[in-house]
Amino acid sequence: MANGSILVADDDAAIRTVLNQALSRAGYEVRTAGNAATLWRWVTQGEGDLIITDVVMPDENAFDLLPRIKKFRPELPIIVMSAQNTFMTAIRASERGAYEYLPKPFDLKEVLAIVGRALTEPKAQAEKLAANDEVENIPLVGRSSAMQDIYRVLARLMQTDLTVMISGESGTGKELVARALHDYGKRRTGPFVAINMAAIPRDLIESELFGHEKGAFTGAQARSTGRFEQAEGGTLFLDEIGDMPMEAQTRLLRVLQQGEYTTVGGRTPIKTNVRIVAATNKDLKILIQQGLFREDLFFRLNVVPIRLPPLRERAEDVPDLVRHFFALAEREGLPQKQIDAAALDRMKRYRWPGNVRELENLIRRLAALYPQDVITANIVETELAEPSVISGEEERGGLPDEIGPAVERFLSNYFGQYGEALPPPGLYHRILREIEQPLLGAALAATRGNQIRAAELLGLNRNTLRKKIRDLDLRVIRNAR
């Protein structure tokens, strides 16, 4: 007996064949169609336990067909496929009642897993959002596999109030994701309130979050509302949550546990109804080990973790982002620009230590400062070249830039030397050796050649340090202080 009956609709015969073969081998009964009309006829005849359909069909868009199917057979799970791998495709699939969204090209193992899950654990019907066919300001751009995973998670979260923790380097778009969760979720009619923990003096964070009463502290001449009260019925975005002081963490945990808070200087509990979305560019688990972040608060906030990849991990999205930012610049009154393929290739090879924010700033600069209609690779190379200016701090013998950005710049230039080719194999160990040698040398110099103290300073076992000294052929000179 078949595991279930599946209706496949796609105008691409090759995709129909591949899905038919894979699903049939897995024990499913499969019927395939090349248009929406045939699929609709089968649905009205009561056929099929599950539908897999492409969005773009020759006779009708699947997003127009889905509401009719869900109205006629609300229990029928529908998996939507699309080559238009954008954020809004995933959102519209969720809005129309799709069980799952699959970007093309897809992995057949993933298809089989989703089909099995859909047939054995039917998804409860969520409240549908109002349809909106024309969305001008799409908040997220990119069609890479990394972004597709994020789109799918966001689509599942839209009809929930689950607390979300967004992690990622600076400039990756954490607030954009938080706004997307709000603007396309069920709290979209409520306020979106953002607060950056790193931008507020530590002794004022509790007052900013919860408000204060008149006379609560010196300078509190009137009652002030806090961000929780301002976000009532909507979403509160807690940016850079890793910079929140311990006292405020304790009060925030109490709010999440009890659903109420008191103002600074107040005594009457105030009920709260907000969705919490937090973000950080730090590793909170390390902060927990250092005693700087409460572990119980972390678990309360980290209900649904979302990691935003740095731009260097999704370089294939650079062309879409470049076109998007040029279009935004043009709408703001800057000259229209085109960019040639070589310039895009150079941008894709760049490491982008500042991520999407750095790319956006570059595009605005290119649109504003260069008279050429077409931006070439030479122009991009000039903009991405490292300035040779030495900061006043370095001239005085102070600390240079942090090591991370410095390594990023080195690697960007290093890869750029090889153009379309790649450097020789063994890059990982070459880079580690180049960093390790001056690090160990500096530690040994600081401890006057005392290997026991140097090992303690570095956090290494003494035997490990001795082996590294031999392997790196380091010269150790012992001096008395």
From TrEMBL:
Function as written in the Swiss-Prot or TrEMBL entry: Member of the two-component regulatory system NtrB/NtrC, which controls expression of the nitrogen-regulated (ntr) genes in response to nitrogen limitation. Phosphorylated NtrC binds directly to DNA and stimulates the formation of open promoter-sigma54-RNA polymerase complexes.
Domain of life assignment: Bacteria
A GO term, aspect molecular function: sequence-specific DNA binding
Residues annotated as domain Sigma-54 factor interaction: 140-368
This protein's encoding gene: ntrC
Organism for this UniProt entry: Terrihabitans soli
Annotated Gene Ontology cellular component terms: cytoplasm
Designated name of the protein: DNA-binding transcriptional regulator NtrC
Pfam families, alphabetized: AAA_lid_14 (PF25601), HTH_8 (PF02954), Response_reg (PF00072), Sigma54_activat (PF00158)
4-aspartylphosphate modifications at: D54
Record-level GO BP terms: regulation of DNA-templated transcription; regulation of nitrogen utilization
Main location class: cytoplasm
Annotated ranges, domain Response regulatory: 5-119
Subcellular location(s) per record: Cytoplasm
UniProt KW keywords: Activator, ATP-binding, Cytoplasm, DNA-binding, Nitrogen fixation, Nucleotide-binding, Phosphoprotein, Repressor, Transcription, Transcription regulation, Two-component regulatory system
Alphabetized SMART domains for the sequence: AAA (SM00382), REC (SM00448)
